[in-house]
Each structure stands twice: as structure tokens, then as C-alpha cells.
């Protein structure tokens, strides 16, 4: 991933990168993610050691989860760093999508960890292992405090960013993992019933799976150039036809998001005879930007026949 910038053949002239606009929260988000990464990364080592020493799977599950989390947070930080780079000659859209790619990869890693936890829990259920409840409780409580700190740091960030959402999801999962480990430790201390340890670690795993799935689904939608959830392509096309004088119909319209925040569109606009093409294109772009939040549009004006020869594919009268 790191070598992606090698392709800049003096491509600095691709100056007007539409991927570059940051809605004011980029730098603070980046710092937030970095702090959270250091917190979880540091404590993950302590928790893994605690899990091995006390024989607790709930702690190991939480540590495994924290491992993917700290990797996730480091990657999220790296993605923010990359996204600030200008577009290059080879990567004309810039690096904005690295974040989405990271969110997706992240989802896959969490999936793998959750599956491992379930497998390990099944094994322990068949032959229970002894657990040192006292030390386990201490480690779990410390873990909870670290996760609460991480959550508070990230919680102030940008709600709409997939990358930030991924980071928060991770830390929330950790927080619940620590709570599960605390409950398991208390139950073992009071009753000596060790199967509670694998049972709760499976609950943590299932929780991790559901959040990972939601994150992967949203990231995949962006990567597949899907229409952003808050936009309706056909309604936008109809609105442009209605709102811009001289536009007969709009077809071949595509609406997609670069990184979950910046929306783009391409379309063919069939104009009435005698309408000034330049003025119409400008009016369409203004309408898209102001009414629909699409700040980068490519508009192809036409009179009569569509240049592609099959204009009726997406007619909007």
C-alpha cells in the first residue's frame, strides 16, 4: 500500500483534485484515530499476556479483537494521511478511496477473528480449562477503562466518514468485550462455573460479526460505485428536467460516491433546439451542486439524437 505514491510522474499538475476537500474534520479525525491506535495497541499486549496467564478465553477474545482494532486504527490513520495527498497522473481521483478499501479489509479481518473465537470456545466447552478469576478481573477492568478512553476520543469525530465509523465500531466492540470478560470473571469468582468464559466470548464474537458485516456492506456499496443511500438517481434526473429550462430529458445518468462523502455524477442532457448548451450545462451543474450535494458533475449536452445512439435506455421525461 505504501508504494502507491511512486507513480507520480510529475503529476502535480493534476491540481484540482475533487477528492481533496475536507469538511474541516480531517485533521482532528486523524489525530483522534492516532491516539486511539496507541491506546488499544499498547493495552492489547497486556491483555493477551493476561489471557494466557489466567487461562481466560474471554480475555484472549478481547485481545484478539483489540489486535484487529489497533491494526484497523493504524490503517485508518494511514488512510487519512493518504487521502490528503493530491491526485496523481496515474490515480486521477486521488487517494480518497483508500479509506473505503481499508474499511472493507477491516471487516474481513474482524470476520476471521470472530470465527477463530467461536472455534476456540467450542473446544473449551468440550474440555473446560481452569481460569484464574482474580487476575482476569483486574485485566478486564483495566481493558474497559482503556476502551472507554478510546471511545471518548473517537466519538467526537465525523459521523459520516466510513473510516471513522469503522474505527468507532472497533472500539465499541472492544468495550463490550471487556464488559463480557468482567462478567465472566465475577461469575467464576462467585460460582466457579468456568463455561461462562467461552459462552461470553462467543457472544462477543457474534457482536463483532454483525458490526463487521454492516461496515463491509457499506464499504462494498461505495467500491461498487453504488448510488449513495441518501440520493435517488431517477428523482434527481426528473428534478433537473423540471428545474432547468430547455432540458428535454436526462439519460445515461450515473451517480456515485468517491469515498462516502464526495458525490459525483455523469449524464447526457438532451436540449431543446436553440438552447445555449454552455448555459444549460452550467445551470444543470449548479442545480446538482445546490439541491443534491453533487459537487462534481460531467454533463454531455445533445440536440436531437444521442451520440451513443441508444438514448432511450434511461429516458426521463
UniProtKB/TrEMBL annotation:
Cation efflux protein transmembrane domain sequence ranges: 33-224
Protein name: Cobalt-zinc-cadmium efflux system protein
Keyword Transmembrane helix: yes
Residue span(s) of domain Cation efflux protein cytoplasmic: 239-302
Superkingdom to which the source organism belongs: Bacteria
Organism: Neomesorhizobium albiziae
Cellular compartment(s): Membrane
Keywords of the record: Ion transport, Membrane, Transmembrane, Transmembrane helix, Transport, Zinc, Zinc transport
Transmembrane segments annotated in the record for this chain: 33-53, 59-80, 101-119, 131-154, 166-193, 199-216
Membrane topology of the entry: Multi-pass membrane protein
UniProt family annotation: Belongs to the cation diffusion facilitator (CDF) transporter (TC 2.A.4) family. SLC30A subfamily.
